[in-house]
């Protein structure tokens, strides 16, 4: 398991950046309850943004029930995650992280998903919106056996 970040996680950071780091950290550790608790009760996940195999209508996954269902549909099926954040831009109550999520899948395959991952938080620091901009075809083109 691994997580790389380009900011000092020991230094005080904007709330949205902190929430994004906590989200990635919980995913790497498989801490579903902790991850869901990072979201506001009316939080929304769009990962990826728009219609996809995870969200055919492109409406997003809403509330803790939807976020739990998203975990089961996507995160729970991955054996291991690695996050490499190459850059991070925080403004207001949001952060946009640019990087790669490497997923290690059952059957000995890995996929690298390059994207921009945008988190918005409320005044309490809870995630109200997580929007992931990535392209399925580009990610799937990286599928290869784990070496």
Assess the beta-strand content as a share of residues: 35-45%
Order of helices and strands: EHHEEHEEEEHE
Number of helix segments?
Answer: 4
* Backbone CA Rg: 14 Å
Q: Would you tell me the structural class of the helices and strands? A: alpha+beta
Mean pLDDT: 94
Multimeric organization: single chain
Task: Report the strand count.
Answer: 8
Detail the poorly predicted runs: none
Helical proportion, percent range: 25-40%
* Major sheet summary line: 8 strands, mixed
Q: Span from first to last CA? A: 16 Å
Shape: globular
Care to describe what's here?
By secondary structure, this protein is of the alpha+beta class. It has helices at 15-29, 32-37, 63-73, 136-140, and strands at 2-4, 39-46, 61-62, 80-91, 94-105, 109-121, 127-133, 144-145. Strands 1, 2, 3, 4, 5, 6, 7 and 8 form an eight-stranded mixed beta sheet that branches. It is globular.
Characteristics:
8 strands, alpha+beta
Structure summarized in a few sentences:
This protein has 4 helices and 8 strands. The protein has helices at 15-29, 32-37, 63-73, 136-140, and strands spanning 2-4, 39-46, 61-62, 80-91, 94-105, 109-121, 127-133, 144-145. The mean pLDDT is 94.
